[in-house]
Amino acid sequence: MLTIHHSKQLNKEVSIAISGSKSESNRLLLLQKLYSNIQLKNISDAHDVQVMQKALQSKSEIIDIHHAGTAMRFLTAYFAFANNKNLVLTGSERMQNRPIQILVEALQKLGAEINYTKKEGFPPLQISGKSNQEDVIELHANISSQYISALLLIAPKLKNGLQIKLQGKITSLPYLKMTLQLLEKIGVEFTFENNLIVVKPKQQIQNLQYTIESDWSSASYHFSIVALAENIQLHLKHFKNNSLQGDAKLIEIYKHFGVEAKLDKGVLSLQKKPNFSLPQHIEFNLIEQPDLAQTIAVTCLGLGINCSLTGLHTLKIKETDRLQALKNELEKFGAEVKIDDKRLLLKSVHPIAKNVQIKTYQDHRMAMAFAPLATKTSLQIEDPDVVEKSYPKFWEDLQSIGFSFTN
Ligand SMILES: O=C(O)C1=C[C@@H](OP(=O)(O)O)[C@@H](O)[C@H](O)C1
Ligand SMILES: C=C(OP(=O)(O)O)C(=O)O
């Protein structure tokens, strides 16, 4: 349990180096395994990326990827067509309840040999590496974009490349585009028109040195701090114009909360506009930025703004049922929250309750999203180590901003 004290006096100006994007890192590590002549800088220090790195080097017959959903999906595709590999890919109890059938069926259609060792449709998976027999598949795109990215990443190494017909509304589209943009950077040719993606095969690539941009989802907690604090300026290092990360939309979103963001020479500077008048109610469709839902809901609570967040149908199959977890914890502060399977309606309250104890449900984003409320009141976070999944230095960075804690 970590108590974060009510931190009224934060440092006025602080520079922070968040490490590389978890999503970019996991994609590029897989591409590096497939092509070897890729050199990476600013790789994420997230636990989810460390497990990906370890798994790609592992000679073991059982690989445990813990809570890392992206790694689970990408590695399933990788091992399916890694010849002579025979292994079980497993994960935490939660991972064993995060669906993977859509991806497994697509891989089986291509010729993979994958069996469920426990529950049909969920990890653990018994995978026997094979060569692919087919190269055309259809796939439901509205559950997780990670299934599509997993297939796209291995596509150029398949005999004839891959043709994917996407069915339904594509969810988390920027992550799919990120995958395609990274394939483009290594010289893979593809087309993406009318829900049909065609990737050409490519056996070798030219040497590539690539610096991974810092993680925008991690940056979201700093946007929230700036929105909630009295008067503070944060400088976040190693960000890029023309980001590949959909969560760069934060710049637009947080304008509504009076946060001004400037990106100059790789440094993202955040500051609050003086005398900004806040809206009473705000609406966002987060179908393209699912990982920002928790941050935004808590910012709204802290600012006393009512909000309606939509496009959230994927939240219940992430690290926890994030819609239910948000409702449970936001209501502890006195707010009223309504949820259905894709929406959250928050009726804020002022002042918010003191000394609330936040449950984290083994979800890093629950801990990090609620922490900025310490600008308003003291609160307690259960199991603070969950942040390791994506942002191990989170508490250290908060300390450098001036937050104080008791264990
Ligand atoms: O491809 C990726 O790197 C990710 C895709 C998103 O998942 P879904 O496509 O399942 O929404 C996102 O929530 C996750 O944190 C990372
Ligand atoms: C959903 C997330 O990760 P993953 O799906 O990779 O476990 C996340 O980081 O918020």
UniProtKB/TrEMBL annotation:
GO-annotated molecular function: 3-phosphoshikimate 1-carboxyvinyltransferase activity
The protein's enzyme class: transferase
Record protein name field: 3-phosphoshikimate 1-carboxyvinyltransferase
Residue ranges the record marks as coiled coil: none
Domain Enolpyruvate transferase positions: 60-398
Family per record: Belongs to the EPSP synthase family.
Domain of life of the native organism: Bacteria
Keyword terms, alphabetized: Amino-acid biosynthesis, Aromatic amino acid biosynthesis, Transferase
UniProt-listed PANTHER family: AROM/DEHYDROQUINATE SYNTHASE, PENTAFUNCTIONAL AROM POLYPEPTIDE
